Amino acid sequence: MKPVAFDYARPRTIADALELLDARPGAKILAGGQTLGPMLNLRLVQPELLIDITRITDLITVTETDDGVAIGACVTHASIEDGAIGGIASGHLDQVAAGIAYRAVRTRGTIGGSLTHADPAADWFAALLAFGAELEIAGTTGTRRIALDDFVKGAMETDLGPDELVTAVHIRKCGREARHGYHKICRKTGEFAEAIGAVTVEEKTGRFRLVAAGGSHAPVVFTDPSSLFRTADPLDVRSFDVDMTAAALRDAGMNADDYDLRLRAVAMQRAVKEAAQR
Amino acid sequence: MTRITLTVNGEKIERDVTPRTNLADFLREDLALTGTHVGCEHGICGACTVVIDGQIARSCITYAVTCDGAGVRTIEDFDDDPLMEKLRHAFSAEHALQCGYCTPGMLVAARDLIRRGSAGDEDAIRTGMSGNLCRCTGYVGIVKAIATVAGDHDVSREEISQADVLGPAPGPAAHDSLQNIQRDAVPPAAEKRRKERVAAPTLASPSDANVQTGEITQDGSFTKLTQTITVNHPRNAVWDLMADIEKVATCMPGVSLDGPVESNHVDGRMLVKLGPINADLKGEADIIRDPENWRGVIDGKGRDARSASLARGRVEYELAETDEGNGTLIAVSIAYSLAGPLAQFSRGAIVRDLVTRLASAFAQNLEARLEGREPDQDAQALDAGSLVFSVLWDRIRSYFARLLGRKPG
Amino acid sequence: MKKQGVGARLVRKEDDRYMRGRGQFVGDIRRAGMKDVAFLRSPVAHARITSINIPEDIQANVVTAADMASVKPITAVTSLPGFKPSNQSILAEGKVRHVGEMIALCIAPTRAEAEDLVARVEVDFEDLPPVHDMLQAREKDSPLIHEGWSDNIFLETLVDYDMADAEREAAVKVSREFSTARQCMSPIEGRGAIAEWDHRLEQLTLHTSTQMPHIVRSGLAECLGLDHGSIRVVAPDVGGGFGYKGILLPEEVCLAWAAMQFGHPVRWLEDRRENLTASANCREHHYVMTAYADKDGKLLGIDAEATVDSGAYSSYPFAACLEAAQVASILPGVYDFPHYRCHTFSAATNKPPILPYRGVARTGVCFAMELMIDAVARELQLEPTDVRLKNLVRPEQMPFDNITHKHFDSGDYPEALRQAIKAIDLKAVRKRQKKGETDGRLLGVGFAMYCEQAAHGTSVYAGWGIPMVPGHEQANARLTPDGGLELRIGAHSHGQGLETTLSQVGHEVLGIPHEKIKVVHGDTAYTPYSTGTWGSRCMVMSGGAVAEACDQLASRARGIAAKMLQCKPGEITLKDGRAHGPSGELSIEEVAHVWYRRPQDLPEDVDPAGLEVTSGYKPERDTGTFSYAAHAVTVAVDPETGEVEILDYVIVEDGGVLVNPMIVDGQIYGGAAQGIGTALYEEMIFDSEAQPLASTLSDYLLPGPTEVPSIRVFHMETPSPYTRFGVKGIGEGGAIAPPAAITNAINDALKNLGAELAVSPVTPRRIVEAIAAVRRSDAA
Q: Which of A235, B25, B99, C499 has its CA 20 to 30 A from that of C560?
């Protein structure tokens, strides 16, 4: 379990990183390596060049923006766990960060790396879909912003071009009354989530995003999930219909079996319950 | 080889390493610090836990070259550490070790947990230590030992260097002895491979109205997905079109043929991309056409030399008349089975998800070809993701339209 | 002096080196000129090798079967009638029979470069139909794994103790099908070895991570055609065994051959992917069982058909049939009933060979028998513990020969159960169950019991006729010139704490302070022959041997002391490390000093044998000690998600006299944690092509700190009448009962829903699907 031989580069600017990426199509970005490392060791990934972006100052920032916060792609889970994004969502995301894998992984794993990998079982993926987060992407021809919803194309498939790099995650600040819920079901602590439910409800703006993720299937986001409840109150957890939700997931194209569908529906129900209790 | 400079257990070290050398191997093989153990080499077991710039990390999935300029501490550096001394005493008193293999990583992680003030109660200790596996003790002694030491330890006096670096250690401020790209021994094939890479897909815009996807089923060792395609051509016209194997086969994203079909046999390859994983399946296919039953089978197998994995694929189609003979209903099934390292994971559904996308792209490309809309030749590319995704979202939207229509009041 | 002998709760002597990162495991050893090895392994389960294409520039560094023609295959036979032997080529010859089977060895300066070579060798296969399942293997038209066999059965056995009588007499008949998953023992350190040829000694030295260095030496000698004297096997610190390292590996043979061939040391360290996909597995059992009982729950008979998936080859030294054939002899467990039939099959499949894992066949047997007891109780609407109490062997029957002629040495089985009932507070659990849980979860309580035969010897294993039959266990005891004691044993300690417990035995006999006693183990050059560490045997066997050797050493020391004190040896007593005579006393240190350093002070007629003794030991009866336990567990089951939380876990254990209670507790905790893994998490899944679907620890789940509860252990202490100090073997017991106890608890939780689980591990998916199946059949 040793990787194939590869070249290594450690650019100091985003521009340099993109130039390398463009010049060497066989290159892979190393943003922390907590997912890539195992794949390299197993030789599932055999890059010609590893571009280490963890020393690019512009990627290791947390910046307050007009409507929220921009988190640099190379900010680690551990620093978010320890309070780096402070007030956003009353610490909800700090707790999500604290639940990712294990501390010794969180100290090197990064938010941008995790989202780029687009593993449906990954915590950030589910949690930030519920937030309606946006990604900032830099490419050789310029930068663009894209909603996370549009970024994900399937399990481990994204909209990222071969010469592009995720540089930051934009999270909109929610109103103080906003409620968040996050529930994951794992076989054991720190392992791949079998199912994740994540929800954000802002009653003032009417924003309601409910996410089904986890396991091996592309996640599904319900932007108007009120129809999954038997009553009009979206936080009346007793009226959340698990069976109808499981059917909705199947109809949304999730090619999973009954158990997997239902488990996601239950995770969603429990996320809603958590949000309602806050 | 890359020259790196780092501090290990207080000593400044300068060494040449290959970029693929992980930190654990560097410590063990180059520096003879064998207290850091290798248990899984994929970041799960925690036996290789070390401290990098004050933060614990997995040395098996951290490459030595990335630690240029960092300060690394291994178990050997804690002989005189007062907190570790207490932990050693407690571990022995509570019988928190048996074979001793996980112990160095366990102690490094336990010390960090206590230092950060995160060992509040038994649950916190268990959760906090969940990244370290022990196969011998059942964790009973480990949890007790940590609780004993944590109960005695004054966290407020600890200098916790949390969040002063937001990224992975050592970060931009660290010494950097690296200037240009560092070459490891790049295999000679690399140059060639680069040229073979296919450009990103620019598939024709999807129109799934005539393609229906069924459920995934298991057929012996094959995972099988069935779809139906409706086209506005009579069956015998479609049958003739389907005889052009090159055109049919290359509707599958990533497939290319190495030469013409001879005696119903053809050599070819298929590039498959799943996230950062690229499989280049080189192989052959046999074609059977059964005109009496309007059936055809393409049976292929290939080997990905890079991963030493084998794949088998089978495309079956059957044509039926529809629209009073003016149209044809094509039932297509795509089945695959994998062997070797690429197959040896429990999350096979990820591959299913990929194959679903590939199969849908195949059906849509086929439909386009049969309807005379030639998909761009470059479309024989890597991933079909973009295509199916919009289909998925369309269907979600339509689902809610229906659901909302049904909603009372 | 603080008590240091038998019964003392001493902290371990071995801890310090591990806690400072100074243990020495095989991967920590360096040799000048050493190169690394990686193996090319089969990606397919069953195929003919049609060609192996090795690029010209690397041919000198790649070895295939064709190069190793002089090396014999591994053939572990038994003398049991009807056993079919298999030949396991060191490197695959013409055919592969499981994924991961070795095809070529590649040598390079580093492991990474060796893996680069592996990637450049191409193998062409002609596929053969694989056999992925043991029941499929038993079918008449199943493809054959081994040419020349008439079927895929290594061994079939049948015992029948008047089963027909039970069928006639019984009021109830309860039938079930049970199965336990294939597992990988997964010590945190994998296997690994370094082979080198010592030109000075003309000797092959193999450092290897093994539980049985002397057996590996014998196996190497047989395969390589070398004299035993030309081979030295060293087991350094070993990072966990559990049975996984009780084998002669083809890798070891291959490495030894390569070291001789290439003339430089070679190293192979198994990585986790090899560990999970290519190396030995364990535990895969299947049972079809019927229990016959009267209306009060008294068992009249058990009728069982048991199949064990033995994998492709018979591994050395335990052979492919140990597990299944043992099922027949131990299935009755702790119960006394009059009729019994058991038909067993050791089935060959295209999967890696199996090895006995902690508890060996007992974990599967306990699962089947204890789930059956609960099924009978549910059928008769009795409390499962009442059914157990009705059928347990009673203390007044001890020593007891059970229906399969197992000789239970001592104990009070019902008392263990009664204590467990009390500790788990069965009444309170039943009350709480009636009330129901506010969070919608379902509460359940489960029990399981077993007895564990340990340290069984010649009379038991001679019947098996496997390559290894234990005789007298030997130990060497040597007084050093400064009055210290060195103990040498041929078994190996890799977590069991023998460096501490054997010192306690030495102290108990000779009174030498614990700190001055050193235990040497794991090196064929330094230690007497032993079959090694397995079968929970070391405390009984090595402990007995050490005591025996120390007795003789004491007698020698008394002889010398008598000369020095000018009295008769019989007048000397040894106490607290001092020799007391009628007219004076000496320390053992003084006795040793005089013997070694001042022989001029001794008369000419002193016994010349000196202060070093090698002696052997067998218990008075070598049919084994039987420790036993009652496990009780309460769980909460989430019927929506299938998640199981263990709320309380109680073990009442009788391991005879405990040499070091702290270490015994550690063995029980650790065993139980593995049992919890078996019960709820661990499963080596193979697809229908016999392709393993777990190659990482994200696929194969080992229990971590949050998956194992704080287990409460209580002890009873009934001495074995046959062993030195009355000790019993206890190393494996903890791992036997948890799958049965936990599954019984889950079934208790689900009983009102009508769902019942009979397959381990009991995963959330299996629970949810069992509930759904009941709902579907209710609806229909």
A: C499
Lowest-pLDDT range, A252-256, C728-732, C769-773? A252-256
Q: Does A155 contact chain B (CB < 8 Å)?
A: yes
pLDDT digits (tens, 9 = 90+) for B353-364: 788 778 878 888
For each of the domains in chain A, give its residue range(s) and CATH number, in order of start: 7-51 (3.30.43), 60-172 (3.30.465.10), 179-277 (3.30.390.50)
Whether residue C289 contacts residue C303, with contact meaning beta carbons closer than 8 Å, is answered with yes
Minimal Cβ distance to B47: which of C188, C494, C691: C188
Sheet of strand B327-339, all strands in order from the earlier edge strand to the far edge: B211-219, B222-231, B327-339, B309-322, B295-304, B277-290, B265-274, B255-257
Q: How many contacts (CB atoms, under 8 Å) link A and C? A: 53
Q: Hey, is the C-beta of A176 within 8 angstroms of any chain C C-beta?
A: no
Instruction: Compute the distance between CA of residue B275 and CA of residue C18 in angstroms, rounded to an integer.
Output: 40
Do residues A169 and A137 touch, judged by C-beta distance below 8 A? Answer: no
C700, C640 contact by CB (below 8 A):
no
CB-side exposure of B379: number of CA atoms within 13 Å?
A: 25
Helix (H, G, I), strand (E, B) or coil at C606: coil
- Nearest-Cα distance to chain A for C69, in Å, is 29
How close, in Å, is residue B298 to chain A by CA atoms?
A: 25
| Separation in Å, CA of C10 to nearest CA in chain B | 9
The shortest C-alpha distance from C648 to chain A (Å) reads: 18
A43 touches chain C (CB under 8 A): yes
d(CA C506, CA C510): 6
Residue A259 is nearest to which of C115, C271, C769, comparing CB atoms? Answer: C769
Q: What is the mean pLDDT of residues C363-389?
A: 98
Whether ipTM > 0.95 holds is yes
What are the chain B neighbours of A216 within 8 Å (beta carbons)?
A: 347-350, 352-353
Shortest CB distance from C19 goes to which of B88, B98, B125?
B88
A39 touching B (Cβ < 8 Å): yes
Domain ranges of chain B: 1-78, 81-163, 208-406
For chain C, say whether B193 makes contact (Cβ under 8 Å): no
pLDDT in tens, C149-205: 999 999 999 999 999 999 999 999 999 999 999 999 999 999 999 999 999 999 999
Number of A/B CB contacts below 8 angstroms equals 266
Residue type, C118: V
Q: What 3-state DSSP class applies to B197?
A: coil
CA B67/CA A52 separation, integer angstroms = 11
Contact C768 A266 (CB under 8 A): no
Per-residue pLDDT, averaged over C688-711, amounts to 96
* A250 contacts chain B (CB < 8 A): no
Q: Give all domains of chain C, ordered by start, each with its CATH number.
A: 31-128+191-238+245-277 (3.90.1170.50), 381-456+622-779 (3.30.365.10), 472-617 (3.30.365.10)
DSSP annotation of A3 reads P
For the residues of B251-306, what is the DSSP string, one character each? TSTTEEESS--BTTEEEEEEEEEETTEEEEEEEEEEEEEEGGGTEEEEEEEEEETT
- Give C465-512 as a DSSP string: T-S----SEEEEEEE-TTS-EEEEESS--SSS-HHHHHHHHHHHHH--
Class of domain B208-406: alpha beta
Distances (CA, A) of C7 to C658, C659, C713: 6, 4, 17
Fold observed for domain B81-163: DNA polymerase; domain 1 (1.10.150)
Residues with Cβ within 8 Å of C620's Cβ and at least 6 positions away in sequence, in order, are C721, C722, C723
Tens digits of per-residue pLDDT, C337-359?
999 999 999 999 999 999 999 99
Q: What mean pLDDT is predicted for residues C297-308? A: 98
Q: Choose the mutation target among C117, C271, C640, C763 for the interface with A, i.e. most A CBs under 10 Å.
A: C640
Chain C contact set for B142 (CB, 8 A): 705
